[in-house]
Amino acid sequence: MSEGYAGNKGPKIKSDCHVTLKQQPSGGINIQLKSKVEKLYGDQIKKVATATLNKLGIEHCEVLIEDSGALDWVIAARIEAAVKQFSDTSETYIPDLKPYNQYETSKERDRLSRLYLPGNNPKMMLNAGIHKPHGIILDLEDAVAPAKKHEARFVVRNALCSANFYGAERMVRINQGEMGIEDLQYIVPHNVHLILIPKVEDPEYICRLDKEVQRLEARHQIEKPVFYMPIIESALGVEKAYEIATACRNIVALAIGLEDYTADIGVKRTSTAEESLYARMRLVNAAKAAGIQPIDSVFSDVGDMEGLFENVRKSKQLGFEGMGCIHPRQIKVIHDGFAPEAKELEKSMKIVDAAIKAEDQGLGVVSLGTKMIDPPVVKRHKKQIDRAVRMGLIDKNWQETYNQE
Predict the structure, then answer these.
(1) Rounded Cα gap, residues 113 and 136, in angstroms
(2) For residues 199 and 207, what is the distance between their CA atoms, to the nearest angstrom?
(3) How far apart are CA 351 and CA 397, in angstroms?
(4) Which of helix, strand or coil describes residue 174?
(5) Is residue 175 within 8 Å of 148, Cβ to Cβ?
(6) Is 285 helix (H, G, I), strand (E, B) or coil?
(7) Residues forming a β-bridge with 114
(8) Pairing of strands 113-118, 323-325
(9) pLDDT tens digits for 34-69?
């Protein structure tokens, strides 16, 4: 007799379930359900369970579902993970990709905030998007216990299909090494926008990963690009930052992970971050040279909003264009910290306004008073203006108002 187990249970567990599945030689499918909502949703839960088992080719089994308010896609993920602990079937039970999850991303979009969510905790995935992070990361790596990594893949896959991201960039952090390559089959076919690649030290690994992504794209006829964000988390990774940043064309950002980096060089991470200044500046320089976004590490004290804001301001001063967060309350602070200040915005509007007027007059040179403005300077200030418009700090027709003052 074959058995499989998946999911979470206990008094503090919500929006999840635990499945115990025992394959039998005969007798059909028998489902035992323990749920506080059995009278209301018991038939639907059993319907989903039966459909999943039928699709996976399981004809005879005993199933115990201990439900804590799991949605259909969670139930299906837990059952499939349990089945595939003992079955080598190639069949899958994948929800249809919801219309609200079919939007695209772009290389240049803002990535000021990216919210990490544990890949084996569906409850945290349900409403994360309402906090308006620029990106939502379903994490298969450090946030998932080794014993749970197998079943987390099915939860993340089904979440990509069914959980509402509310317009946030759809991100997944894969595992390291060969396990990370294996993760790709669970996420690439389901409109993942960006893959975070942890602990990168070798650009060749990214090339291998990119080839596998291309193979999956061809197999599933995917035309939308899948972007990459390598994470530098070691001394060797820092030294190879530019090689990593330019390993393939779909890399759009380069992030640093300071917890692992400081551990690697044998120092304690501090609030002043003096111990990581070299690494952070090296990463910023590599990213800027490669024409991609440098992204800073997470701020781990979720209760210290003043410390977070100060950290964001320092990060911005160093040239970073975003950072990670581990709690929704950090998102607004990060956005506010990276937002252009009034004096910065005034300067940007002055320079961009002068550039637009020079172009309208057919002038090849932009001047402001007695100073000549180089094209890269104009480009940088135009980017700041565009960000201010997206953040609602100024109107998209700001130039009309500006010239009336």
Answers:
(1) 9
(2) 15
(3) 16
(4) coil
(5) no
(6) helix
(7) 135, 324
(8) parallel
(9) 999 999 999 999 999 999 999 999 999 999 999 999
Identify the CA nearest to 199 among candidates 214, 215, 171, 179: 179
Buried/exposed 270-289: b ≥16 CB within 10 Å, e otherwise:
eeebebbeebbebbbbbbee
Kindly give the pairing relationship between strand 113-118 and strand 135-139: parallel
Sign of the four-CA dihedral 390, 394, 397, 399: negative
| Single pTM value for the model | 0.90
Phi, psi angle pair for 372, to nearest 5°: -90, 135
Distance CA 67, CA 37 (A): 8
The residue whose two tokens read 């970073």 is 320
Question: From the DSSP assignment, how many helices (H) and strands (E) are in the chain?
Answer: 14, 14
Give the alpha-carbon dihedral of 144, 145, 150, 152, to 10 degrees: -30
DSSP codes, 95-129: PPPPGGG-----TTS--SEEEEEETT-GGGGSSGG
Tokens representing residue 48 in the block: 């989903």
**In the 8-state DSSP scheme, what is residue 215?**
H
